[in-house]
Design a protein that fits this description.
With 156 residues, the protein is an all-alpha fold. It contains nine helices and no strands.
C-alpha cells in the first residue's frame, strides 16, 4: 500500500504540508521515499511541495505518479508535472506532455508546447513528439489544437 500518509500516520493536511516542507531539505533515501509517498497526497498544496523537491532531485522519481499528476485538478501540480515530463525525456512522458497542450491554464499549455519543440530535437523522442502533436491536432479540442499547430509549425 503506497497511500500518501502511510509511514506518517493519520495526520491532518497541515501536518502533511509541514512534513513535506521539512523533507525538502533532505536527500537521504528515506526522506526521498517519504516525499514520493507525499507526492501522491490528495491535497494539491501538499503534492506540489513534494513534487517540487523530487523534480529538483531527479524527475524520474515521480514516474510512478505520472498519470495521477498529469490529471490533477491543481494547476500547480500540473505545472510541476509538465516540468517533470520534460526532464524525464521518455516516450511516456512526451505523451503526457502532449496531453497538457489542452490544459485549461494558458501558461501550462505554452510550457508544454515549448518543451515539445525542444524535445523534438532529441532523435530518440522525435517520433513520440510528432505523434503527440498529431493526436492533439486530431482531438478537436480547440485549446490543444491551437498549441499543437504552433508546435507543428515550429518543428517542421
Amino acid at each position: 500500500d503506497r497511500s500518501p500518509s502511510r509511514g506518517l500516520g493519520d495526520v491532518y493536511k497541515r501536518q502533511r504540508l509541514v512534513a513535506a516542507r521539512l523533507l525538502r531539505h533532505h536527500r537521504d533515501p528515506k526522506a526521498v521515499d517519504l516525499l514520493v509517498q507525499i507526492a501522491g497526497d490528495p491535497s494539491g498544496a501538499v503534492q506540489a511541495v513534494a513534487l517540487s523537491r523530487l523534480v529538483e532531485l531527479d524527475a524520474s522519481l515521480v514516474e510512478p505518479l505520472n498519470e495521477q499528476i498529469a490529471m490533477s485538478p491543481d494547476a500547480n501540480v500540473r505545472q510541476l508535472a509538465a516540468e517533470a515530463f520534460s526532464e524525464q525525456q521518455t516516450v511516456e512522458a512526451v505523451g503526457l506532455l502532449g496531453r497538457l497542450l489542452d490544459d485549461p491554464i494558458p501558461s501550462i499549455r505554452r510550457f508544454a508546447a515549448d518543451r515539445l519543440v525542444e524535445l523534438d530535437k532529441i532523435a530518440s523522442l522525435q517520433q513520440s513528439v510528432r505523434l503527440a502533436v498529431t493526436e492533439m491536432l486530431r482531438s478537436g479540442k480547440p485549446r490543444g489544437v491551437e498549441q499543437a499547430a504552433m508546435v507543428a509549425g515550429a518543428i517542421d
